[in-house]
Amino acid sequence: MVNWARKRRLDDLIIITAGILLHKLRKRYRKPKRWHVRPYYLNRRSEGRYFKDIPKLREDPDLFKETIRMMLLEPELLPVIDSRPMDKILPKERLYMTLEFLASGTLLRHMANIYHILEFPRF
Fold first, then answer.
1. 9-63: per-residue pLDDT in tens?
2. By the number of CB atoms within 10 A of the CB, which of 8, 73, 82, 118 ranks highest?
3. 85-109: b (≥16 Cβ within 10 Å) or e
4. Residues whose CB is less than 8 angstroms from the CB of residue 100 and which lie 6 or more positions away in sequence, other chains included
């Protein structure tokens, strides 16, 4: 007569052992990361759209209105609340990203690329 409870425990033990071995094999052959943050995202303060293009757009009110679909904003009047201290995206920068996203309707990934941020902020 077969002891089914003992056979089931043995099967469970074999499955768990196989899972552990598979995890160790995958961990061993995992490709190491080349960098913590891609260099493309490190130069956001000099190459990102907010720091590079928005000041030029503010000089031409018609082009600004065409791009953002609003009249010129006075960012100095905006409250300075730093709700994302980890990546240091300025509140003014987030505002312009959101307004341009709503005005253009482009993909979030595209907006993140032109503003040189890793992910588009979720509000």
1. 888 888 999 989 888 888 777 677 776 777 777 788 788 888 888 888 888 888 8
2. 73
3. eeeebbeebbebbeebbeeeeeeee
4. 67, 68, 111
Instruction: Find the farthest-apart pair of alpha carbons in the chain and give their distance in angstroms, rounded.
Output: 89
0.70 cut: is pTM over it?
Answer: no
55 closest CA partner among 37, 73, 36, 32: 73
pLDDT at 8: 79
Rounded Cα gap, residues 72 and 74, in angstroms:
7
Q: Do 88 and 51 meet the contact criterion of CB atoms below 8 Å apart?
A: no
Q: Is residue 104 helix, strand or coil?
A: helix
- Cα angle 84-90-94, degrees, rounded to a multiple of 5: 85
What is the amino acid identity at position 8?
A: R
